[in-house]
């Protein structure tokens, strides 16, 4: 959060910078969905959806790699980077949650990450 405040004070737009990492058409489709439903939205909410969908794809791919025999530590290291580190600035609570999930995976239990996928990612392709 401090980084976001510091960047905002310097005139940088951290949300726009983060949105630039995604396909503009995908971001616009989310905006269009909000407008079609008559909902107000912010660029932060668009970013949140894009990040969540990316996390779902990464979790799905990681579990497929795990099922194919990839080493647990390798998968956990990757998920630590994409789920924990990348959430520390914008969604610190999610970073803490994912840290626990990755730690459980590292100890041999993929249950919570599978449950997260089932509960939060069924609509994500």
Binned, the helix content reads over 70%
Query: What structural category do the secondary elements indicate?
Result: mainly alpha
Please indicate the percent range of residues in DSSP E strands (runs of 2 or more): under 5%
Could you give the count of β-strands? 0
The separation of the N and C termini measures 30 Å
Shape assignment = elongated
**Tally of separate domains:** 1
Mean pLDDT: 88
Biggest sheet architecture: none
Number of helices: 7
N-to-C SSE series? HHHHHHH
Q: Stretches where pLDDT falls below 50 for ≥5 residues?
A: none
Instruction: Report Rg.
Output: 16 Å
Structure description:
With 125 residues, the protein is mainly alpha-helical. It has one domain (14-120). Helices cover 73% and strands 0% of the residues. It contains seven helices and no strands. It has helices at residues 2-9, 14-19, 24-37, 43-67, 72-84, 92-106, 111-120. Helix 4 (43-67) runs antiparallel to helix 5 and helix 5 runs antiparallel to helix 6. The two termini are 30 Å apart. The relative contact order is 0.11. The mean pLDDT is 88.
